[in-house]
Write a structure and sequence with these properties.
3 domains; rod-shaped; D-Maltodextrin-Binding Protein, domain 2; 12 helices; Arc Repressor Mutant, subunit A; 24% strand; 300 residues; four-stranded mixed sheet
Amino acid sequence: MNYPLEPYRVFYQAAREESFTKAARKLFVTQSSVSQSIKSLENSLGVKLFFRKGRGITLTEEGLLLCQHLEVIFSEFDKVHHYLQKHQNLETGQLRIGASDTLCKHYFIEVFEDFHRRYPGIKLQINNQPSLKTEESLLEGTLDVGLVNHELHRENPQFDYQDFYPLNEVFFASRRILENDRTSYTLREIAALPFVSLRENTSTRRFLEDYFAKKNLKITTEVELISLDLIIDLVQAGFGVGFADRRVIGDTSSRGLAILQGDFSLPQRRIALITHGRLPQSPAAKAFLAVAQAHKKKHS
């Protein structure tokens, strides 16, 4: 059934003020408007809500019962209104982010820290998962923001992209497996070496396999992992060739690693923040994107 709220609000104000005149002043309406609204509500409910007492009014038994219930209802309205104001002002709420551990650790820790410092009332819920899974979750509406590796030619029109960091990805290996400390290789020679790689359900693995396939080559994966940091450790231990951004690899000389160079050019990928282009962004999501953009400008 349809219950218009306004007559109940007028009744509740009159009950609190014990006067139609005072209620009219509080509601910025005329006294006759208050009287008509109360009369309409009484007719709708089939009960008398007030009776006159001298120059004032007093609640009937039914009026008192209704007033008690409305007090609870309007109190809840006030709480909801207050919560929504705090939510809009970024004093409370949550932000659901999807990202791999590599992106979190090596690129976004400072962004998380800055965001938390600015908005301590916002709860960060970080779902640790590969970029492809993050894209799926975003489409399902279970995330607010995704942090992903992406290729320009693979952009999904359903997403809004905000570039964050250009990747400088390279092949690398332990010097112990390189013949005569050699670092210059053809792409075919690199493909013939064993690889230590991320699992198949990752954007990086897909990128690698697609890149080699376009050259009519195929790589052989010796070890599959979900952690890029662990991949670097196993490459250092001599398990095979790795593929990562120079920033993540770090100092190669101190780790006995070498960058493999040769007659090839890798398409550049980028780290991006993505949101669902067809869904409204929450205040927390907008604030996070702004903080990330500020960090990008600071380090560019």
